[in-house]
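Example 246, ligand magnesium ion.
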Amino acid sequence: MTRSANVTLEGVYRHFGKGRSRVDVLTNISLTIQAEEVVALLGPSGCGKSTLLRLIAGLDVPSDGVVMVDGHTVTGVDPRCAVVFQEPRLLPWRSLRDNVKLGARGEKDDSAVDELLAEVGLAGFENHLPKEVSGGMAQRTALARGLAGHPGVLLLDEPFAALDALTRLQMQDLLAEVAQHTAATVVFVTHDIDEALHLADRVVVMAGRGEGIAEIIRVDQPRPRDRSHPELAPLKAELLARFGIH
Ligand SMILES: Nc1ncnc2c1ncn2[C@@H]1O[C@H](COP(=O)(O)OP(=O)(O)O)[C@@H](O)[C@H]1O
Ligand SMILES: [Mg+2]
């Protein structure tokens, strides 16, 4: 098992385009995420959440500044990081088992993969094709595929946004379990304040595009959390107020 990794962003900038069409998406972002921490990135659409996640994953490089995983500058796709996207991105002609295998570094035997599938609640579905299972189950498969490489950092970009409300809550609980049981540091993007407060040790609230981090809210409540815990209510009010909702 890979040990969890810390993530450091130092003075990170990312802009796209040139001249008058230049868009400054990330401006001077500095953030340190501890190993084994669960961090939510919350913010309005277009503020640069996905861009930030892609920089950590090594899918993109900053215009300026440094992104480090465990003290090493990220310069390309980083094998210590796994990414789960909003859509499961499974190969439709491959079984769930074979899709999960794709996330493993090197050879992975069937029993290890099946164990992972069981962990995400998919025992008995190993030989199914993606089209034969629900959206939630496909996303569980994507999560198992992400875990198959024993990542030090698990990055998730609005992983449950496409799911129905109930499935979404179940997936949140699954992610809480996964965060507990794997050694991975978890960074996830969400629009959902409840989701952020249910899962994260810290909620990083991003301001508008190019405006950086607005605030960071610490959630001290131990995980797994009771969704109706009274200590979460004032944090929710604070976050809602931040988005102009009272
Ligand atoms: N590769 C790219 N080329 C040009 N513009 C981009 C690129 N990636 C992101 N952007 C722009 O950066 C802004 C932030 O995008 P994104 O990080 O996807 O926001 P969020 O995930 O917070 O909704 C958007 O205006 C988007 O159009
Ligand atoms: Mg996004």
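Summary: The mean pLDDT is 94.
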